[in-house]
Amino acid sequence: MLIAQTSDGIARVARDKLELLDRPGPLDDFIIEGRLAELEGLKTRASIGWDETTVASPITRPGKIIVIGLNYRDHAAETGNPLPTFPRFHLIPGSAVTGSGATIRLPRCAPDKVDYEGELAIVVGRTGRDIPEKSAWDFVAGGTVADDISARDIQSGENQGLPMASPALAKGFDGFKPLGPALLTTDELRQYDTLGITTEVNGVVRQSSSTAELVFSVPQLLAFVSSYLTLEAGDVVLTGTPGGTGVANGRFLMPGDVIKVTVENIGTLTNTIAMAAP
Q1: Exposure of 129 by Cβ count < 10 A (0-12 exposed, 13-18 middle, 19+ buried)?
Q2: Contacts (Cβ under 8 Å, ≥6 apart) of 276
Q3: What gap in Å lies between CA 273 and CA 179, rounded to an integer?
Q4: What is the pLDDT of residues 40-66, one digit of tens each?
């Protein structure tokens, strides 16, 4: 089931239309309470186009976001790094989340080296600690599309106003974690051995890869992260980005840029970059 949270309620995605379900939201509640199955088979009260509503993130305020670094072979190669021997992760605040269609403002303190990172995001559907790899999918609500936007100068410690490397801050500015436009529930997500991922900036493809390039699988990531901290229902895990990032080629985001991240069988996340607020 592919479902979306809209300003008109929870909707089932049916190709180019949204079928509004006869059940009040928000979708967050159904994810956190493990009730997504209740949405299957519900009656449709109306059918609308994507341009007739505002689409929110499938989970609007995660308790925490876990960002995995260097988890694609092609991205490690383009940055000159060896493949990691264990998952590298950072914790990002839930306040960084926004939805598809939202405008993302460059931070006043770091507007010059803001980068895109198209990713598959996993939404946790069941709380767990020390999750066994073999049963990790039982703790997943589904998958969605993410753009792990990052201020690279802050990430690397090259920002003059903040002379220290701070990956969590670099990735945690307001709006820097757009998610959406929909959630593909785990029963369908698990059917795909690989998913294609592409990122376009102003219609030009910058990233084109697939989850076949993952170093660590989704079950491996959940097992590893949960060995250090409890993963709670509603948390989000960004599984890493493929090659083609701006930091590797020096092409950073500018005001007016339109970013489109597509994950096969889930959808396209679209956001526009704007100048920092005055």
Answers
A1: exposed
A2: 105, 106, 107, 108, 111
A3: 15
A4: 989 999 999 999 999 999 999 999 999
Look at residue 234 and tell me whether its pLDDT is greater than 90. yes
What's the token pair of residue 207? 């990233």
Which structure tokens are listed for 270? 């679209």
* HEC sequence for the chain: CEEEEECCEEEEEECCEEEEECCCCCHHHHHHCCCHHHHCCCCEEEEEEHHHCCEECCCCCCCCEEEEECCEHHHHHHCCCCCCCCCEEEEECHHHEEECCCEEECCCCCCCCEECCEEEEEEECCCECCCCHHHHHHHEEEEEEEECCEEHHHHHCCCCCCCCCCHHHHHHCCCCEEEEEEEEEHHHHCCCCCCEEEEEECCEEEEEEEHHHECCCHHHHHHHHHCCCCECCCCEEECCCCCCCHHHHCCCCCCCCEEEEEECCCEEEEEEEECCCC
The predicted pLDDT at position 24 comes to 80
The pTM of the whole model exceeds 0.70: yes
**Residue 200, token pair as written in the block:** 């376009």
Do the Cβ atoms of 26 and 60 come closer than 8 Å? yes
Q: 177 to each of 62, 181, 227, how far by Cα in Å?
A: 11, 13, 24
